[in-house]
Records
---
Amino acid sequence: MMNTTRTTKRGLLNGESISRGDAVRLILEAIERLGENVIGMGRKELIKKLRQTIELGVAAVEQREHTVCLEEAGWESVRAREDCRATTRRDLRYYLRKMLKVEGAAQLPLRAMTTRQCRDILQRAFGHSKSMYTKGRAILHSIFAYGMRQEWCDVNPVARIEVPRVVESPKAPLVQEEVQRLQRAAEMPEFRDMKLSVNLLLYSGIRPTEVSRLRAEDFCWQEKLVIIRPTKSKTGGGRVVPLRGLKQLRPQERVIPKNWQRRWRALRQAAGFTHWVPDVCRHTFASYHAAYFRNLPELQLEMGHRDCELLRTRYMSPMLINEARRFWQASHC
């Protein structure tokens, strides 16, 4: 080992990599950069200081060059979030695969990636959709944040990428005839176990996935409340929502069936819906609540929104007042 080291040093000084003149210039440059730290030092002290400088410099270079590629960092960050719910992990994997399919992206070293490269990856993977671009940006940002904790990079270049402004458009609710079709389908003997679910979707504004996760312990029948726990909500924030229209539900109908998603699709088909807008029941609840009760702070709490701004852009339509009156009167709330 000692002979190998000596041979390597001799090779370096014989002109294979650097000349003796180069070595002298590097030493002088190091002394000049050290400045006042070495003024007045003797030969031994100066050599000791130069060795210390070299050791620290080598450590800094190794640290700076220590990194992994985007593909490895991305999958490691996904594995680190195994405690997330299944739908979140599915989204992480889907968006990461989309980014890694961008030509040349997978093998980019994380530490060397620039804001321009990150923006280009997002644009090529999700440029067709503002909402997907926004979510993709958040996931790429989280990959770099994880990379910084692992010391694979020092900065998060995604932080400099602006979040696209999404202009919210009003959401059209179901009309009363469509509401009645859902309710009539839930009255069919084969769908009685979905009657509570339809009621929660329409008159409590709970998201379909949240309804499917509800269990008996989440209902407070005496207080007429249902608890959407943080582990079961879409956003990870809990809320308490009033139960409405309970007079129309017999005790045996107060159930959430297994295989809920399949049952929900079957009920919609039985009600004659060939095309279904995701979350339209939640939009219906919010639109008619805003138009009839005119109480946005209360609606904000029931919907689980951080503020009222989204409600103002999506659901404030005075033209809905007559439909809203029929909707709430029909619910017997």
---
Amino acid sequence: MDANAIDPTRARSDEWRAMLRLALPITLIAFVNMGMSITDTVMVSALFGPEALAAVAIGSDLQSIAFYLCAGVIAGIGPFYTAALARARGGDRARLDRIGRALVLLLGAIVVPSIWFAPHWLAPLGLQPDLLERGQGYTRSMALTMAPMLGIALYRTILTAAEQPRVFLKVTLCMLPLNAVANYVLMTGLDPIPALGPTGAGVSSLLVALASLAMLIVSARRALPTARPADGEPALDWRGMAAVLRVGIPIGITMTAETGVFLGATLYAATLGAAEVAAHTLTLRMAGLAYAGSAALLQAATVRMARAVTGPGADASRAVQRAALGLAAAGGVTLLALLILSARPLASAFFGSGAAGVAAAEIAVGLLMLLGLVQFAGYPGLAASGLFRGRKDSRTPMVCMLIGYWLVGVPVALVLCEGWTLGARGLWIGLATGACVTTALTLVRLPDSHAAVGAVARRARRLWRRGLRAATG
């Protein structure tokens, strides 16, 4: 046997560990970001009541949608940056740094004024004028916050591409208590700082984002090797910018469309009964927690595949694909089992024992189980999307998602809600259908798709049988 030959089993094991080392910090970052969002929501509601919360929610949701779109576009730089690091080409990295900064400036010039003037162009759409006026200060603060947030998105992409998300995690952890303290001081006032009311939460977000960006710039310079531009290179590589946009724009569309599906479901659920709305709200909160892991696996698969395709041979790419899909199968089965087992106790604890709470809890049990099916079906699809993005192909997963969710899942949900009057259950059956179709289409398009689908199915069956044996003793 050749002494230099690579043991396939060891290669797969090493890839599993590498992907987990990358995915776990990214998951924790998502949880910390959720913690800051929850902190804002709880503090505004507790200090100023539900009307103030509704007023700031408009600006918050608008900023979130714009940020998902822009962050997706910026994420297009990721596979190129990973390839430049793998080849140890400092000139390529310096060129990509300039492209990233140009993207931040370009996107900021578009979205910051759009959010700043949102109260003016949202009013004709039928939103309540008093809510728009009351939330105007917060909305404008969030418009300004978009500028440093786009810079943060760039450095998050770069550090993830360099497989150093822990640097970003440390900065994010520092910001969590700072956000809470700044919220309280700016909303309630502390001499000589005036009380800004709900607007203080927006100003706090701006200050925290500026501090985060400053820390990230310093940390990234310490963590990454110095990148110097090549002599005579133009200030901006327009061809490179076009290549990044070809990858990034479909990612932005995908992220916005995915968010739009769940936002639309929430808007529709608001037209149903109180118990349906409450059950849907709990399920959506749990979906946000569950999505953190699958989104982290997507990013890890993107980085590892981008590094694998940079080197010679196909063995590394196959190892990354098997590891990503294996972890996806494990994650999907685990979440399905957890949500099935915890659905009833979680719903009962959340809604209490009153008559209205019992009614909401009964609906929530079924919705949480459907969420488990969404995760079971969606995990492999998101991992496969990351594998495509690592190959600089973001159009294929975008098309699969648009077909799966918007052309199949949404119509199924509407038929079940309106025609069969299934209410919130119909919504989540539609979402589960969209997840199944999206994953199937994405897996079929993967290289060696039959082997990929078979590997996911075998891994899921093995994990499910082990879980059943453990549960039954």
---
Amino acid sequence: MRAVGFALTLLTGLLCGGCEDVISVKLDEGEPLLVVDAFLNNVRRVQTVRLTQSLPYLTTGEAPAVTGARVSVVDVQTGWEYFFREVEAGTYQRRPQRNDGFAEVGKEYELRIQLGQDQYRARSRVNPVPRIDTLVYDYEEKTPFQKAGYQAYFIAFDLEGQTDYYFIRSYRNGILRSRNIDFQVSVDAAYGEGADGLQFIEPLADFTPGDDPYRLGDSASVELASIDKHTYGFLSQLMDLSTNAGLFATPPANLPTNIESLFPDPQLKPAGWFAVSAVSAAGIRIEAK
């Protein structure tokens, strides 16, 4: 995420008596923000929180890492604090411990960040997630919308009795598919309320992008993560902004954040998101039938 604000020299050809004028447009650069990337889960693997500083809009290059922070996540119910160690500039990690009780379903967790004299907080509750029953795959011929190859699908049923929100992502040979089109969000088993307790519909259950199908020998895996309504809204808006281009693009808007500063005027105002999820995962190897 980058602060809205940039200095842009706009060269415009004006059809005014055959003349060309150079118009210089200068906009104020927004104040830099503390950008928090803290999507954690109950999978027994290294959990990561990333802290960066925003750049002016349209600026190229890597966002500066925010170093020297004290980062932890607290179990609100028990008060147990899980500490994240800075392993490289701006990257704070925690390795799972034996009998680790991190990210238990039904519990609420609080992210705590101390950066100099400034302190930041955010909370997230871990919601339940349904089990993935099985994975299936089929070879599909080339079409105008996809390449020839194996399309993989998961079979799972939405939890019954309440509105649930999910974040779906997939892996190929253990590597996360990280493009915007590779991620999906869901309400119940579809794209809106009304599918309570039903099987996930095919556009969601198909976790294979059309331009990059699986091949023989590949391992295919998918994760179904529980999220809350606010995280669903954040991810939906993020995905919309990342594909907002072309003739009918809308003006970019600032993303919401659930990170709060404990002080009214911190050196870096917060941005980004904190969420803790329960995850259901399954994997399969693509073999000839």
